[in-house]
Amino acid sequence: PPRLSCPKSSFNMRLLMCTFTDQLITIVPVAVAAALSTYLLTRYFSSQSSPESRVNMSVNKDSPKVVHSFDMEDIGNKAVYCRCWRSKKFPYCDGTHTKHNEETGDNVGPLIIKKKTP
Question: Membrane-crossing residues (predicted)?
Fold first, then answer.
């Protein structure tokens, strides 16, 4: 922005106005940058803990950590496990990841464990 030419003579209203304008030219960009930075950081950190960013929306919410353990002998020839956390039969996959992928653009699929055939 164009600057006013400020006289260096006696203290008068024009000198006062020029000093104020010079201060504004310095302060306003700094204040805008600080406000924008604060806004962006607040949005970033609030999105990190928001419910929308959670993977597990409904499985064992009363538990501090959801853990499932299976013995290889108990799975039979093949087991298909959910990795999208949306299955109604969790921890087993029911194909819900297909709808989840369509809605979100994600590419998650199930974990398939099967025994090797000799």
Answer: 20-41
